# Entry
Amino acid sequence: MRLEVKDLHVHYGKIEAIKGVSIVVNEGEIVTLIGANGAGKTTMLKTISGLRPVSSGQILFDGQDISRMAAHDRVELGLSQAPEGRGIFPGMTVLENLEMGKYHRKDRKSEMKEDLEKVYHLFPRLLERINQAGGTLSGGEQQMLAIGRALMARPKVLLLDEPSMGLAPLMIANIFRIITEINNLGTTILLVEQNAQQALQRAHRAYVLETGNVVKEAKASDLLNDPAVRAAYLGVGAH
Amino acid sequence: MIKVTFNLRDKGAEFWDRSPRWRRVLLSVIFIGFCYALPFLNNPLINTPGSDFQSVLFYPVGMYVMMAIGLNIVVGKSGLLDLGYVAFFAIGAYTMAILGTKTDLNFWEILPIGVGLAMLSGVLLGTPTLRLRGDYLAIVTLGFGEIVRIFAVNTDAIGGSRGIAGIPTPPDIFKAKFTILDPKPYYWLLLTFTLLIIWMVRRLAARRPGRAWDAIRQDDDVAQLMGINTRRSKVWAFVLGAAVAGVGGVIYASQILSIVPDQFNLNVSILILACVVFGGIGNIWGVILGAVLLAFTPERIRFLSQPRILVFGIALVVMMNLRPDGILPKKKREHLEPNWDHVEESGEGEIK
# Structure
């Protein structure tokens, strides 16, 4: 088990956002957390990456408890997140953004060229815009940049927060195709998505999150055909 | 609509980038030479009727420039609003005053102690408070600035509200004698330290610490996701800013001979911040220009006597309306017009 979350509770002030969630992400998998707005998906990712404090419960990475570890140390262990809403640095160029992704790596100088080429191979569009400021990219390009930058850290587990948010259907399909490709290249992925259709088609396993609880856990392909999930998340009524 | 604005900063940067090495060296030498020669360039164009030109060069002009460079590390580079910056200046000045009058240590021995104490207070203030963001940090630092001043007022051991008098001057360097009558050596001393600080700040800003500050300013959370220890970076920015103010404080106290707590009031913090904002947050040359103008102008128009602060205030308001980002703003790439040409060709658009 690469990543394991055990009975996690997270609070915003007095409000409990995550009410005892347990999930498992195995080596080489794409695991997706789907759910509606406010289900706690983003909170889950932020807690796993260390931006939100844990109230109780455990987060294990390769068996090591990291629930009290600072966010920047978790990056060093191999957890890398592409934040929600394309959290790139708008005032830095595409290249500078990608270089920031390597900030903590000790061998950043020797790795830089190789990893930049990998990212450009996955996202040729970024190479075209290499000297453009991040804030001037289109939504899809910003998402590519956020994912590319996370990959620069050579993550063992890549955390993706709503990569489809605000993108046109064509771009969504494109991004998800690349996510599968990244996974095929050997990176384990935890994907949080509202676009259940795409997420379930790409993932191996899935958890359905509702108001801070996991209400369902299954193989992604099974959930695609689950009448309740179809009715609630795939926009297909159970006739 | 095409908006054509003449951007002095970009033109300057472009010229500099295209210049061969010899031209850069030549320009630097001319600029530095000009700065050192300034006390002798007292002419009707830039003189200050009503106050001694050479004194004005030391205080407020030189002192404001140094402090503005220091505050720019905190406010401009890392985006932390510090309204109590004067506290570190006061700590430097008081270290010089206390150790200078109570011990046999001379200026050069006290300088590192004063800087060290300013840095230490930067750590003490920064460590607990830098988890706060934006306005909250501003309030806490504002409080800190006032606490230091009020502490000095109420502590009789360091002179209370009467302050400390009889602070020794630095020992002579070759033929340059540091006396109350001649501000030139002090100005040169201050200028030398300022140049050293500029050199240091520019090197840091281009390297990893600068990158980290840049990232933190743009997005604190995302900076953490890059593996940046954001709290440590912020404390470092705070401590370096404090060190610069500490240097200023020690030099200031050794020139003015006597200090009182009320010299270190909130107005100084606000004025230094105004220098940074007025010149152009984040761009060191803008900040320097801002400090020079803000320190020099009130002295230059002293002949207006009573209404001079009013005129100065109006000039500030007008300036900030004309150039809200400052005189020489930092290159703001996030404001560049996006290039949408590619959107149609790829059939991609944004749905909001």
Remarks:
- The interface with chain A takes residues 208, 211-212, 214-215, 218-219, 221-222, 224-230, 332-340, 342-343, 346-352 of chain B (CB under 8 Å).
- Residues 334-352 of chain B have pLDDT under 50 and may be disordered.
- Chain B is about 65% helix and 0% strand.
- The first helix of chain B runs from residue 8 to 18.
